[in-house]
Structure formats: C-alpha cells, structure tokens
Amino acid sequence: MTATTIHFVRHGKVYNPDHLLYERLPDFHLSDVGRRMAEATAEYIASSPQMNTVSAVYSSPLDRTRETAGAILDALNPVREERGEAPLELVTDERVIEAGNEFRGKRIGHGEGALWKNGNWRLVRNLWKPSWGESYAHIAERVGAFAREKIRQHAGEQIIVVSHESPIWSFRHLLETGHAEHWMFLRHTALASITSITFDSDTGRVMSITYVDPAAGIE
C-alpha cells in the first residue's frame, strides 16, 4: 500500500486594522504577528524529518496564503539543498481559495456593523449552509477535487497546501462525518496550524487525520 499525505496549512494572521471581512479581496497581507506565525510553522516543517521531505508546495492565490507558503519555502529549500535536492517552487490553485462571502469589504461587529444595516441580517438567517455565501458543501467539493487529483499525482509522497480556515475545516468535516455542514464557531483550525490528512494512494481512503499548532505561542 502506498500513501499520500496532504499537509493543509492555514495562513498566518492578517494585517486588518479596519476590521474588514477581506474574503478574496487583494492586498490583505500578513501582519508582523502573522509573519512570525508563518515562520514558526515553517521552522516546524523544515525541522521535521517527515515533513521536510514534501515533494510540492501549493497554495491559494491570495496574498496571505502565498506569503505563508513563501515562509515555508524559505525554510524548507535550504534543507533540500543540503540533501542535494532541487528547490521547490510555489504552485497556486484556485480550488483551495477562501470561501465566497457576501459581506466582503464590510465591517463586522465594529462601528455601524454590516450585519445590522440595510437588511443584511437576512444573509445570516442560516448559520449551517451558510446563507451569506458559498455553501460548505461546495467548498468541500472543490477542495476534494483538488485532493483527489494530488493523491494520484503524488502517490507515495507528501505535499503542503496553504489554504484558509473554511476550506480546510469543511473538507476535514466532510471526511470525518460524511457532510461538510458545520457550526463555524466550533472549527479547530488555528492560524498557521497544520491539518495532515493521509490517504491510501490507490483508493483515496482516509487513513489518518492529525493536527498540530506550531504557532500557538506567537503573539
């Protein structure tokens, strides 16, 4: 039996002084804390005899995920060079992008608050679907399509995928429970955390799911 492990990494903290829901908007970058989070997780990966053997690094095309992936590559490639291996380069993929959200660009819970103006409260009538944007089922479907492709492409290997909280958790929840729908307040996907899912490369069956939070102490 051969196995493929996908290490899903959530990006670090974003610089967002205006408290906007940035969703897929451009020019939302890692904060100073976020960069330290990314570096802590990158060092964890580079120093792990198992994880530093990954064969590829993918990410969402958004700024915060590419920057987090860049920190990982900066830590990982010197280890590869010491082993005489070629450096890895980042590959972006739209299928692991942030969830679509109708509140993009608006303030949530600050000042006037987007949730309470102009009938926007109707968008939060269903926390399960959710009613304010892309459904959890669709999110898990696109991440699943990406995963199935990479399981075959990287049979017997490990890869890193830098993504966002909702895509990572929706896919994990689908694998663990059979449905992607969940309560958003009960997610277990901290900033710069790593959710590692190992699959049977031939059947796609989930063999194990593990979770670690290397940046938990970063402030």
UniProtKB/TrEMBL annotation:
Signal peptide start-end = none
- SUPFAM superfamilies registered for this protein in UniProt: Phosphoglycerate mutase-like
Report TM segments: none
Q: Which Gene3D superfamilies match?
A: Phosphoglycerate mutase-like (3.40.50.1240)
SMART domains according to UniProt: PGAM (SM00855)
One Pfam annotation, family name? His_Phos_1
Name used for this protein in its record: Histidine phosphatase family protein
Organism encoding this protein: Bifidobacterium santillanense
